Amino acid sequence: MDIQNLIIESKARFNHNQAKQYLKDKYQSKLTFADQGGLWVSSPSLLSQLTSTNDKNLVLLDEYENPVKVDRNILLQKANEIYVSVMEQWHNEWVILEKKR
């Protein structure tokens, strides 16, 4: 393998990794939403916390670490909708990116 091929391959890997990082940044920001007076990030940990209790109202710390009293069912529904939608979009773009590789 000559040096020119190595340079081309390393640039391609760098561009691919850069594109993956861009997708991550793009879609992680879409997971943030405001609801019930707090700012939340729809994540597996938030979904787990909301799913693991049966209490109707909870006091949770939002992204700014402010205690916010929320209706668990409403927050769970919105967080789940956002998470599923964003992850589906992210996956679709990631598949396209991987095919270009």
Largest sheet: 2 strands, antiparallel
Based on CA inertia axes, which overall geometry fits?
A: elongated
Record field, number of beta strands: 4
Residue stretches low in confidence (pLDDT < 50, at least 5 long) are none
SSE succession: HEEHEEH
Radius of gyration from the alpha-carbon trace, in angstroms: 19 Å
Individual helix count: 3
Main sheet: strand order: 1-2
The CA-CA distance between the termini, in Å, is 19 Å
Number of domains: 1
The share of residues in extended strands comes to 15-25%
Average pLDDT over all residues: 88
Helix content: 55-70%
Description:
The chain has 101 residues and is α+β, with helices and mostly antiparallel strands. The chain has one domain. The chain is built from 3 helices and 4 strands, in the order H-E-E-H-E-E-H. It has helices at 3-30, 44-51, 72-100, and strands at residues 32-35, 38-41, 57-61, 67-71. It has a two-stranded antiparallel ribbon with strand order 1-2. Strands 3-4 form a two-stranded antiparallel ribbon. Helix 1 (3-30) runs antiparallel to helix 3 and helix 2 (44-51) runs antiparallel to helix 3. The longest helix has 29 residues, at 72-100. The mean pLDDT is 88.
